[in-house]
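Example record

The entry below shows one chain as it appears in the dataset: sequence first, then structure tokens.
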Amino acid sequence: MIKAARCRILFERESEKVTRMHRPSQSPRCCRSGAIVTRRQLLQAGLTGFTTLSMADVFRLQAAAKSVTGAPKTAVIMVWLRGGASHLETFDPKPQAPSEFRGPYSAIDTNVVGIQVCELLPRLAKIADKYAILRSIAHTGGGHPAGSLQVLAGDPDPQDKLTPKLPDWMSVADFVRHDASRNLPNYVAINPVDRYDNFTIAGSTYLGPSHAPFSVVGDPSSPTFEVPNVGLAPDQQERLGRRMQLKSGFDILRRDLDTSGTLTAVDQFEAQALSLLISPKAGDAFDLRKESNSVRERYGMNAWGQQLLMARRLVEAGVEIIATEFDGPLCGRVQNWDDHAVNQHVFDAYKFRTPVFDQAVSALIEDIYARGLDQRVLVIVAGEFGRTPRISYVASSGGGVASGEAGTVQPGRDHWPQANSMLFAGGGIRTGQVIGATDARGEEPVDRRVGTGDFLATIYKHLGIDYERVAIADFAGRPVPILNSGAPIPELQRNRV
């Protein structure tokens, strides 16, 4: 009797908790498209248990945030260059600049007349008709955290902060485009874009953990690589099935007592979580072994190449938001693109890393077009800022890949938010073009200056999100617009066939 009474109390508490999550609020904060969320819903949906959320809890939280269906099934793959790539050594070379600016590498022609890129990118040079280069984006965030938050979340604050105040565009898109019927997460981060040293540079903030990404970590090129919580062997599925049957038996009494439909809803959340384990589609989407060796080698049998191959497989399976970060050993000694002279020899670092970058990105872009994804999937290559056009010379703090021994004076480029370049491909955009221009030294935009709000508006427009009218309640219940300023880059207007 005592045990039965305890079970009934636990059941009633759980029932009331889930019922509260779905109870309409008297003061909704809503966006035009119908995505409604309130502070009460966010808090009651699980703040008391965020530290112990199960996967089913995550799906439960997602469903508590009123979602939007019917939006076009467009997708974005963002390749994030953590640390900030040099625009001069990639997409905005300045071969005529004075020696203290231009560096040792030449510019080469592409397959589009009038467009040149750095000689370190020969594969991308051959497919310039399949992408557009933006050479004039600029902002005021000079530190890695501030620069990242300006680009990824539209936070105008020029000062670094330990944690973000606003949710990044990936979490916002996941919130607005949430679909509870999916058997795959809608936002996947392959080598997540989340931290820079002890700073958090991206996150879901007041959207809650249910709109954080499904994260894939590790080196996908490793023979022992596995994605946890996705796919089970047949014998494991059988054991899981037996356990679920046992649990179902324990739930019979509670279900008989349920008059609100709560347990039915709980079953649906658990089914979504289980689909990642038992759905062949989910398992296959993450399984790179389904690709031929020739395809895997075309992307590059390394972390970056296989990250982008997985991204392509995921968008084909229906995932709509994918972020992947290029960092780690393939960058050189300090394992990112932060090429201060004290860190590493900037030009040796580019000679080391760009062949891998060039191969992986060009393979992804080629596949997006070859496989008929170019209207639906927008590929973006970006970082938090560019690098100083004027070359600095400082003693190295330590030797290693692309860096001289400690004390060796070597060249570097420092942070430069005043000018940067980005690459866009697919998405039905007009390709084979350069948008904007910097001056002869690459220091400042002199034509078509673009802000981070314009960048974010471009992404939201591609995803069918009303960036002008959508607002989401913050922790205090205040409706916060997802974008305070900016408009889609008109030169990238969709060119659907």
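Notes for this example: The CA atoms of residues 113 and 432 lie 9 Å apart. The chain has two domains: 2-66+232-273, 75-229+279-492.
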